[in-house]
């Protein structure tokens, strides 16, 4: 007669799946600056991507170890566009975003803080020469009105991230918000 309960050899084996939480994103801290001139134009930059597409955005870049946000804003503006702002000339943080993209090892993207500064019009020419700018992927720097930013497609080989033109237009029109906004572009 067979016993009612299976022996240890007859019991089905349970496989316990071990799921690990996803690894936290490795985000490079960075700053961006929305520079607005008296004609309400915004200084924008075009980056060439590895796939041949290009995207418009605001000047700025990674925060170096030991730098404050203000230090990084000042350094990036000197390097990329030749503007040397005093700390008091840099407005408040107006926005934040987590930008996940292929930036290269060891990073999965950037955590970016955006600042607003109203500045006199100037001809952008930074400390970095054309080769150094190209090494960072920067291929064009120019002043654009909010209407010109709205005219840039949000998809395709030459684009501006969806929502970026409207965000920039609000900053130009209304100035800095009461508190930083969370961007989803």
From TrEMBL:
Hydrolase in keyword set: yes
GO molecular function: hydrolase activity
Source organism of the structure: Nocardioides iriomotensis
CDD domains named among the record's database cross-references: NUDIX_Hydrolase (cd04685)
Entry keyword set: Hydrolase
UniProt key word Metal-binding: no
Domain Nudix hydrolase: residue ranges: 26-166
Name the UniProt record assigns to this protein: NUDIX domain-containing protein
Entry cofactors: Mg(2+)
Gene3D superfamilies: Nucleoside Triphosphate Pyrophosphohydrolase
Family membership noted in the UniProt record: Belongs to the Nudix hydrolase family.
